[in-house]
């Protein structure tokens, strides 16, 4: 256990240079992108040159780029990510308000994806080449091929427009429902803490469609990985031992094979989670989800530097964090890791 | 007394890409209660397939196409899982080669033993655990209470096999099938595991089906032995008769090819003894005070030896003795921590391993590896494998000269010229060994380092390859540094032998003298642990009590 913690610590320290690189890279990237934020944020099309210059000075854009970078790094080091020109709020506040929405969506989507993908992968691996295997392959292929905005819209069309089962696909909670008091920012958790089950239900039903849309998208890597590693494990010697000594089929598959097969799935899970968090911008847009990705997209379109830089830094940090968690999980799941 | 297990005319087919292959062609065997039957044969003879058939563990591609298997009078040839599951583990059990892989890597061994108990008996988790503890004691694992929580990777190979045995005997089966149970283990560990198996089966009145390629092992532990060749049992008899007066031609060949205490390389392949090699007396290699540390722990400590031109020196010892490390240091694939390696009087130990391939000494010292399949580039044809060192070390260009040189090397190792275009996977084990040897001698080295060159080969192929190596040495005046765990092979191949233990030299001397009258206790242990079969003689009767100078490895 100590070894695992040590490994995690080392991994964290070794990822710091990468984080710094991301910081500098995003900064420079934003500077070379076309578009002048000062013109964008000027009062109107007929704003005078003097006003634009004034805005530029206030934003610090009149200084040379290296100096801007140093100032920016100093700000980041002191926990100041700048102020968004679009919302007028500090970026840190905006991100803090919107991150729980994205995280809640991503967590739920990942959970749904895992609950579907692991059994599907096992079924496919137990009978390779069978109808079940081909069926799973078809589902996975569809999930990957169909872009999330298409599958999202399809789900809305069928479940909301045609059947009317799903609620109005806008936002995290029905506007008429009472918001639970904010504790964590996760609506499901807050509602449950406050015991407001009506609000919980409202939030949950809003969440189902976007979460399913995203889950469908990441079903493929998880299910295929489960199938592949399950197939490999099922041919290994210790499975044969279990069979030779008369263990029940259930025990052989669930305890002996699956636990070993899940080791690579844990790694994939970390990657999938990080990808989802950043890549769910389309889902957030389709469902008017107030998450960080759609926030960053809006900022990017209006050349609003600070939120984009803040978003990329946030994503990079989350990526590092997720990898740490995966490392820890792996160390717990596989006793060989801490030694070797 | 009726037989416990009866196999009659068993036929098994495997569906492969090249059509159906018949692996068993009518095998008949029977094992009585508390009897030990050995099945010997070389790879591909069908001995393991027979065992897997009895347990009904054949993989999907295999199919029983004829014959019958009866266990305790009941026909289980076509029995389903519902019949088999209660039998497996409880009435008949199996232990496997490579014990570490046979155990679940992420489950404590105690839990795995308890799994088997609870699969067959309705006992509480606590009781299963207590019984697992008692079983670990029964298979003589030290500190069993602590080992219950251990994972397989924390145990040695011998201990893993003991755990496997504990699992197999947990529910008191009447038949135990042991498929190459000690292959890959050190001789002393092998002896300890086999003694445990023999004693356990005897005490519990279990029958055992011992599958092995080692005739000595079969002779020592089996009451009756069946010899298999190409999916058929060609001869079956008690060991004395079988090895004393083998009737079938294949058995005779097998017996002749197996190294014994008194056999010679020429004798294995039925040829006349050549003249003994007379040493040139010219120093080729001089190693002094060699030391190699890995992560602070010394794997090799203060080893010194020398080798004359044309001489053959054997390095023997168990795993962890440092013999492979020494061979890699001499080959200059590893850098020594301290000490000198002088070749032709020049210090080559100081040349960094990473740059040694550029040195002019690289072509003088060549290697023959243990795994001939793995050590050949799968995308190189046999021709390219042999030509590669000529291109790289001698700078030869494509053309008639290179082709002639490769063909000559192939001829010297007895590799037919038409095989040169083939890729490694299209060659047999023996042919791959020849390619590996041809590659090593291609740049005309003066020293060949052979790291367990025949450990992965069948005995009959081993005999031919050993004979080839011996002939090459005589013809080319090569010096050999021969690393092996097989003491009989080293005795035949080497004039002098060094015995290593835990990175240090324990004993050194002329091979005949050393093997005939070992001085060090450790050498005596190693020699005593080799299973013998003596034609016309009694298989060693008295159980030698081993006084270990080292803690039990297994």
From TrEMBL, chain A:
CDD domains: TM_PBP2. The lineage of its organism: Bacteria, Pseudomonadati, Pseudomonadota, Alphaproteobacteria, Acetobacterales. This is ABC transporter permease. It comes from Belnapia arida. Keywords: Cell membrane, Membrane, Transmembrane, Transmembrane helix, Transport. It is a multi-pass membrane protein. The keyword Transmembrane helix applies. Gene3D superfamilies: MetI-like (1.10.3720.10). The keyword Phosphoprotein does not apply.
TrEMBL record, chain B:
The keyword ATP-binding applies. One of its GO terms (molecular function) is ATP binding. It comes from the Bacteria. Keywords: ATP-binding, Cell membrane, Membrane, Nucleotide-binding, Transport. It is a peripheral membrane protein. Gene3D superfamilies: P-loop containing nucleotide triphosphate hydrolases. Residues 5-255, 285-527 form the ABC transporter domain. Its main location: membrane. It is found in: Cell inner membrane. PANTHER family: DIPEPTIDE TRANSPORT ATP-BINDING PROTEIN DPPD, OLIGOPEPTIDE TRANSPORT ATP-BINDING PROTEIN APPD. Belongs to the ABC transporter superfamily. This is ABC transporter ATP-binding protein.
């Amino acid at each position: 256990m100590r070894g695992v913690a040590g490994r995690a610590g080392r991994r964290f320290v070794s990822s710091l240079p990468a984080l710094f690189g991301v910081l500098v890279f995003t900064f420079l990237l934003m500077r070379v992108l076309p578009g002048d934020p000062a013109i964008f944020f000027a009062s109107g099309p007929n704003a005078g040159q003097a006003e634009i210059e004034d805005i530029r000075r206030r934003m610090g854009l009149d200084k040379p780029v290296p100096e801007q970078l140093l100032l920016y790094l100093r700000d980041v080091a002191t926990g100041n990510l700048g102020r968004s020109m679009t919302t007028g709020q500090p970026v840190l506040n905006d991100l803090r308000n919107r991150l729980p929405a994205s995280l809640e969506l991503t967590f739920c989507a990942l959970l749904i994806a895992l609950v579907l993908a692991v059994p599907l992968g096992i079924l496919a691996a137990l009978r390779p080449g069978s109808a079940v295997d081909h069926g799973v392959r078809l589902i996975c292929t569809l999930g990957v091929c169909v872009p999330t905005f298409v599958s999202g819209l399809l789900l809305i069309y069928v479940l909301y427009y045609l059947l009317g089962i799903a609620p109005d696909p806008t936002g995290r909670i029905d506007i008429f429902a009472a918001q639970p008091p904010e504790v964590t920012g996760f609506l499901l958790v807050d509602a449950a803490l406050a015991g407001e089950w009506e609000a919980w239900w409202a939030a949950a039903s809003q969440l189902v469609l976007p979460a399913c849309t995203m889950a469908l998208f990441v079903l493929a890597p998880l299910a295929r990985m489960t199938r592949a590693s399950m197939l490999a494990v099922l041919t290994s010697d210790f499975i044969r031992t279990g069979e030779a000594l008369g263990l029940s089929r259930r025990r052989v598959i669930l305890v002996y094979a699956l636990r070993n097969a899940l080791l690579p799935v844990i790694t994939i899970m970390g990657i999938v989670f990080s990808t989802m968090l950043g890549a769910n911008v389309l889902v957030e847009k389709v469902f008017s989800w107030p998450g960080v990705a759609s926030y960053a997209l809006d900022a990017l379109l209006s050349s609003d530097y600070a939120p984009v830089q803040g978003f990329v830094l946030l994503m990079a940090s989350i990526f590092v964090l997720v990898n740490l968690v995966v490392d820890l999980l792996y160390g717990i799941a596989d006793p060989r890791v801490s030694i070797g | 007394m009726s037989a416990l297990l009866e196999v009659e005319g068993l036929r098994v087919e495997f569906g492969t890409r090249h059509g159906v292959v018949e692996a068993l062609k009518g095998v008949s065997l029977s094992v009585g209660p508390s009897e030990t039957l050995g099945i010997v044969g070389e790879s591909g003879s069908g001995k393991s397939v027979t065992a897997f058939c009895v347990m009904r563990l054949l993989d999907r591609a295999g199919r029983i196409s004829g014959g019958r298997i009866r266990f305790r009078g009941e026909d289980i040839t076509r029995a389903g899982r519902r019949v088999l599951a209660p039998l497996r583990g409880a009435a008949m059990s199996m232990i496997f080669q490579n014990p570490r892989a046979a155990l679940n890597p992420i489950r404590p061994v105690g839990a795995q033993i308890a799994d088997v108990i609870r699969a067959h008996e309705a006992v509480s988790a606590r009781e299963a655990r207590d019984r697992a503890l008692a079983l670990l004691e029964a298979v003589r694992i030290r500190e069993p209470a602590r080992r219950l929580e251990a994972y397989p990777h924390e145990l040695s190979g011998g201990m893993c096999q003991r755990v496997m045995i504990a699992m197999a005997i947990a529910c008191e089966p009447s038949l135990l099938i042991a498929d190459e149970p000690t292959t890959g283990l050190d001789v002393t560990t092998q002896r300890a595991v086999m003694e445990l198996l023999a004693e356990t089966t005897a005490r519990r009145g279990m029958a055992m089906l011992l599958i092995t390629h080692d005739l000595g092992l079969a002779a020592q532990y089996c009451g009756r032995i069946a010899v298999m060749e190409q999916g058929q049992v060609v001869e079956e008899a008690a060991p004395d008769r079988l090895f004393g007066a083998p009737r079938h031609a294949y058995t005779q060949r097998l017996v002749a090819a197996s190294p014994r205490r008194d056999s010679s390389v020429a004798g294995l392949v039925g040829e006349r003894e050549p003249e003994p090699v007379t040493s040139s007396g010219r120093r080729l290699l001089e190693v002094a005070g060699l030391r190699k540390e890995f992560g602070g722990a010394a794997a090799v400590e203060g080893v010194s030896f020398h080798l004359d031109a044309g001489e053959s020196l054997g390095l023997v010892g168990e795993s962890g003795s440092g013999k492979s490390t020494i061979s890699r240091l001499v080959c200059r694939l590893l850098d020594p921590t301290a000490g000198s390696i002088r070749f032709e009087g020049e210090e080559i130990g100081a040349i960094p391993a990473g740059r040694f391939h550029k040195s002019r000494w690289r072509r003088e010292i060549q290697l023959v590896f243990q795994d001939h399949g793995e050590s050949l580039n799968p995308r190189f044809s046999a021709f390219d494998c042999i030509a590669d060192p000529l291109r790289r070390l001698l700078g030869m260009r494509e053309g008639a000269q290179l082709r002639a040189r490769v063909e000559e090397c192939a001829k010297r190792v007895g590799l037919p010229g038409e095989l040169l275009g083939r890729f490694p996977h299209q060659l047999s084990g023996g042919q791959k060994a020849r390619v590996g040897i041809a590659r090593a001698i291609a740049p005309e080295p003066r020293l060949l380092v052979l790291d367990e060159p025949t450990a992965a080969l069948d005995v009959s192929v081993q005999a031919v390859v050993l004979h080839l190596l011996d002939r090459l040495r005589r013809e080319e005046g090569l010096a050999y540094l021969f690393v092996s765990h097989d003491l009989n092979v080293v005795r035949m191949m080497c004039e002098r032998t060094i015995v290593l233990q835990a990175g240090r030299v324990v004993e050194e001397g002329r091979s005949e003298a050393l093997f005939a009258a070992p001085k060090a206790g450790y050498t005596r242990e190693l020699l005593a642990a080799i299973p013998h079969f003596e034609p016309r003689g009694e298989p060693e009767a008295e159980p030698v009590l081993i006084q270990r100078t080292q803690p039990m490895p297994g």
